[in-house]
Write a structure and sequence with these properties.
The complex is a heterodimer.
Chain A (H helix, E strand, L loop, with lengths): L18 H19 L43 E3 L9 H5 L5 E10 L2 E9 L8 H5 L5 E4 L13 E2 L1 H9 L4 E2 L11 E4 L9 H5 L5 E5 L17 E5 L9 H5 L5 E4 L3
Antiparallel strand pairs in A: 1-4, 2-3, 3-5, 4-6, 7-10, 8-9
Chain B lengths: L5 H17 L4 H7 L2 H38 L15 H10 L11 H16 L19 H9 L2 H12 L2 H32 L4 H7 L10 H15 L10 H4 L9 H26 L12 H4 L3 H23 L5 H29 L1 E2 L3 E2 L6
Antiparallel strand pairs in B: 1-2
Helix pairs in contact in B: 1-2, 1-3, 3-12, 3-14, 4-12, 5-7, 5-12, 7-8, 8-10, 8-15, 10-12, 10-15, 12-14
Classes of the chains: A alpha+beta, B mainly alpha.
The complex binds iron/sulfur cluster (3 copies).
One iron/sulfur cluster binds next to helix 2 and strand 3 of chain A.
Chain lengths: 263, 376
């Protein structure tokens, strides 16, 4: 079957090989592959056998070279999310960061009636498993597991409620807490004091309760100037507790909070 | 070896059937039904049906064989789940295609569009009628079977081009053009390689050619011709290193772009029929047909239908070689294809004709035994 191959025109003279090799070498490679996979090709016949099965131990290694344990796929696998409802602070950062807009913040029991607790609900019909949400979560309560089976008969079944993801969390699957090493966030929430009306909205909605409304002295208006209409309180932000969620900025009715660096 | 022949078998079936059918009729009709002519007619019909059925089943098995082999070449398993080891997968695929709508693009020419798949299929299948599978298992021993087979085999470009032209699609037309050019270019080396075989065996009759190989198979003295023939067959079959007519990356699906459903299945099936015919021709011309070398223990050659068994084994192995080539080599360019055909294959084939003539002139090969004298 080794027919001589033609020599291609315009080939650089140095790189030219024997034309016969172009035929024989691929044939040899294919034959080697054939012989190798004659006994057992590397296909895993998925629904009938799985990579997690003990018989594949030792054949599959994680990135570090360690053979993976039973029940594991890869330790950096990005599968279904696990959500620890108890530590979620409802900061919205996961929903903000999702490129596919598949996270919706839904109310879960546990909050007070005036200020309900909201946790992410993920629609896996849209999720691209990018892991941004897990990366953004400041509390480390949203992480990705090695569970990869998501098939469902209806679209609604692909929407995972916080409770369902909490179940995943409780099943103690190997988790991949995606946490990209980032430079320390220097941005802080700054206040434009003359505009602030001291309405308490930011302090009320801050998920970390790091805003305190402090009393400030009442100013005396200069002649001809109107006295600002405000309750004589001003938010003071505890930078070390702030998770930079931006909720305060978005709830502020007067747009007096903004990102910046404190001098 | 068993003495049943395909014709005696169908004759027996026909006689049996007619004897039982005639049972219910009154005497004159009974006599007419069981007369020789009617039996002969029905026997011919059964003969054809058996041939058609056998060739179709073998063709579909060939697809399975290719899928399995290609799978192993690519470290996969191929078809697995329908039937044992996926044996029925192709029947399932065929059923799926059968249930699909067949339609014709509105600007396509109706006659050519419908005719070409049928004609392509028919001209491919009809070759089976004259290929000897084993002693007695052929449709009559014509003196020029080899030529007839090659002539029918080379009808294909006509119908491919017809279908491509009738589809009224630029990709189909380019594919059809390429197909015709390629097939015509490779007819020449193929025929020259066949001439070498004919010179050595002294006959155009395939049965005689096989019987002439009883001392040694022709691939050894005619190795060059074998290479030319295999290459030419690959090009005639439009298989992978030479599949320019349906280069998927450039031409969508080549000349059968506009065909869907059962019409596509017709083309595909006819392609595989041609692969099977090609492999069978290689076995007949170079690999000793249904015979095995004399040093093989006779137990291996004396069970019933041993000839057919070994013949099919050889044919499938040859096709396995084609699959091997498909799994290894990339597609070549048109200029390379034509240069390979005209500048390498034709001289090689001419050389092999000269070699064959020398072998015949020498009459006796020192080790392998004597070549029977020419003419015959
Ligand atoms: S993994 Fe990506 S796409 Fe999926 S929910 Fe998280 S952020 Fe959205
Ligand atoms: S980012 Fe984390 S803490 Fe914030 S709402 Fe989402 S899951 Fe809860
Ligand atoms: S950004 Fe604003 S709302 Fe969010 S944690 Fe910091 S202070 Fe609180």
């Amino acid at each position: 079957m080794a027919e001589p191959a033609p020599s291609p025109p315009g080939e650089a003279p140095g790189t030219e090989e024997k034309p016969l090799l172009w035929v024989t070498r691929p044939l040899a490679t294919a034959a080697r592959q054939f012989a190798k996979s004659l006994w057992r090709p590397s296909t895993v016949i998925y629904p009938f056998e799985r990579l997690e099965d003990p018989k594949f131990r030792g054949e599959v290694a994680v990135a570090s070279g360690r053979p993976i344990g039973v029940g594991e796929i890869w330790d950096n696998y990005r599968g279904v999310h696990a959500l620890n409802i108890n530590t979620c602070i409802s900061c919205n950062l996961c929903a903000f960061s999702c490129p596919d807009v598949c996270i919706e913040m839904v109310t879960v029991p546990g909050g007070d009636p005036k200020h309900p607790k909201k946790c992410p609900q993920i629609d896996y019909g849209k999720c691209s498993f990018c892991g941004f949400c897990s990366d953004a979560c400041p509390e480390g309560c949203l992480s990705m597991t090695t569970r990869y089976e998501l098939t469902a008969h209806k679209r609604e079944e692909m929407v995972y409620s916080p409770a369902k993801m909490f179940e995943v969390y409780k099943s103690k699957l190997p988790m991949n807490p995606i946490r990209v090493e980032r430079p320390k966030n220097e941005d802080q929430i700054l206040l434009d004091p003359p505009i602030c009306i001291g309405c308490n909205a930011c302090a009320r909605d801050c998920p970390t309760q790091c805003i305190t409304m402090l009393d400030i002295p009442k100013t005396t208006p200069k002649p001809g100037e109107k006295v600002p209409k405000r309750i004589w309180k001003e938010p003071v932000i505890n930078d070390s507790d702030c998770v930079r969620c931006g909720t305060c900025i978005s709830v502020c009715p007067k747009d007096c909070l903004f990102w910046g660096t404190r001098q | 070896m068993s003495t049943i022949t395909l014709f005696s078998a169908s004759d027996a079936i026909a006689a049996f059937l007619l004897a039982h059918i005639a049972y219910v009729f009154p005497a004159p009709v009974k006599g007419w039904i069981t007369s020789g002519d009617v039996v002969l007619g029905l026997a011919s019909l059964i003969f054809g049906v058996i041939l058609l059925g056998a060739s179709m089943i073998n063709t579909i098995m060939l697809i399975w064989w290719e899928r399995k082999l290609l799978g192993r070449f690519m470290d996969r398993r191929g078809a697995m789940h329908v039937g044992f080891a996926g044996l029925l997968q192709n029947f399932a695929d065929g059923l799926k295609l059968f249930r699909k709508d067949t339609f014709r693009p509105s600007k396509a020419d109706s006659l050519g569009f419908w005719m070409s798949p049928t004609a392509y299929m028919v001209t491919s299948v009809v070759i089976f009628g004259i290929l000897p599978i084993s002693t007695g298992w052929n449709g009559g021993s014509l003196p020029l079977t080899l030529l007839l087979a090659l002539v029918i085999f080379s009808f294909a470009p006509l119908f491919i081009f017809l279908g491509a032209w009738a589809s009224n699609n630029k990709y189909a037309l380019i594919g059809g053009m390429r197909s015709a050019a390629q097939m015509i270019a490779y007819e020449v080396p193929i025929l020259l390689a066949v001439v070498a075989v004919v010179v050595l065996s002294g006959s155009f009759n395939l049965t005689t050619i096989v019987l002439e190989q009883r001392n040694y198979w022709f691939w050894a003295p005619l190795f060059l011709a074998l290479i030319v023939f295999l290459t030419g067959m690959l090009a005639e079959m439009e298989r992978i290193p030479f599949d320019l007519p349906e280069a998927e990356a450039e031409l969508v699906e080549g000349w059968n772009t506009e065909y869907g459903g059962m019409l596509f299945a017709f083309f595909m099936l006819a392609d595989y029929v041609r692969y099977l015919v090609g492999s069978i021709l290689v076995v007949l011309l170079f690999l000793g047909g249904w015979t095995l070398p004399t040093y093989v223990p006779s137990a291996l050659t004396s069970f019933p239908l041993a000839g057919i068994f070994w013949f099919m084994v050889k044919a499938y192995l040859v096709f396995g070689g084609f699959v091997w080539v498909r799994a290894s080599l990339p597609r070549i360019r048109t200029d390379q294809l034509l240069r390979l055909g005209w500048m390498r294959m034709v001289p090689l084939a001419l050389l092999s004709v000269v070699l064959a003539a020398l072998v015949v002139a020498a009459h006796c090969l020192p080790v392998l035994g004597c070549v029977p004298s020419m003419g015959g």
